[in-house]
From TrEMBL:
<keyword id="KW-0325">Glycoprotein</keyword>
<keyword id="KW-0336">GPI-anchor</keyword>
<keyword id="KW-0449">Lipoprotein</keyword>
<keyword id="KW-0472">Membrane</keyword>
<dbReference type="GO" id="GO:0005886">
    <property type="term" value="C:plasma membrane"/>
</dbReference>
<keyword id="KW-1015">Disulfide bond</keyword>
<dbReference type="GO" id="GO:0098552">
    <property type="term" value="C:side of membrane"/>
</dbReference>
<protein>
    <recommendedName>
        <fullName>X8 domain-containing protein</fullName>
    </recommendedName>
</protein>
<dbReference type="InterPro" id="IPR044788">
    <property type="entry name" value="X8_dom_prot"/>
</dbReference>
<dbReference type="Pfam" id="PF07983">
    <property type="entry name" value="X8"/>
</dbReference>
<dbReference type="InterPro" id="IPR012946">
    <property type="entry name" value="X8"/>
</dbReference>
<feature type="domain" description="X8">
    <location>
        <begin position="27"/>
        <end position="112"/>
    </location>
</feature>
<keyword id="KW-1003">Cell membrane</keyword>
<dbReference type="GO" id="GO:0009506">
    <property type="term" value="C:plasmodesma"/>
</dbReference>
<feature type="signal peptide">
    <location>
        <begin position="1"/>
        <end position="20"/>
    </location>
</feature>
<keyword id="KW-0732">Signal</keyword>
Amino acid sequence: MKTLWLKIAIALLFITVTFTAKAEFGQWCVADPQIPDNVIQAALDWACQIGGADCSKIQPDQPCFLPNTVKDHASVVFNDYYQRYKHKGGTCDFHSAAVITQRDPSNGSCHFEYIQ
């Protein structure tokens, strides 16, 4: 009986470590929900026009167009910029319009890339 409990404990520990480790290491950059849309829009415009982010996924008929909100579109673009440039000094700030999350914000057909 003691051996059975030991095996169960080890299995539960393995499951806990596996799922916890997966969540702890991912970092995505998303729009801060507390920031006004006009500030987010200005940061989104910069990222698309000057910053070098790929904004094609938020265009109509593309995987991240819906939901069609400034914050949702900005989150896709901010994360693209952050993943693309974080190893070259790029940050997830956008004049304080963005925050880091450890929860994968991907949803439906919209995949948020994560690069280690």
